[in-house]
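Notes from the 1:1 (GR / supervisor)

We went over the backlog. Supervisor wanted to see one worked example end to end before approving the batch request, so GR pasted a single chain during the call. The sequence is below; no edits were made to it. Supervisor asked that the structure be written out right there so they could see what the output format looks like.
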Amino acid sequence: MANILVVDDAKIMRANIKSMLTHLGHTVAGEAENGYEAIEQYKLFKPDLVTMDITMPNYEGIADGIEAVKHIIEFDSNAKIIMITSHGEQDKVIRAIQNGASNYILKPLQIDKLEEIINKLSV
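Structure output shown during the call:
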């Protein structure tokens, strides 16, 4: 099973994702509430996978999840990052994929879809 970093600015969303991941048998390596923390946590824990919210507040010059993806991919070109996105953010999803994200899931997050994408990434 995988060690996974959970990134979302909403504490309740992080709790939901962590609950789904542990139910699926994965370990939550860490969690972050903004892109800057995501980059720092990635460097610290070197997780197998990251779930990354796209829209988060700007913190320490990291504007959002897309910006965090760029920095994580610069640090580790093999990083596997699943973007978590709301409907209507297709342009942001495309930019995230272009910057190195591996896949995406639409909110509301469903455990079977999360499991399917994790399995697709062979984590």
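Supervisor's comment: The radius of gyration is 13 Å.
Batch request approved.
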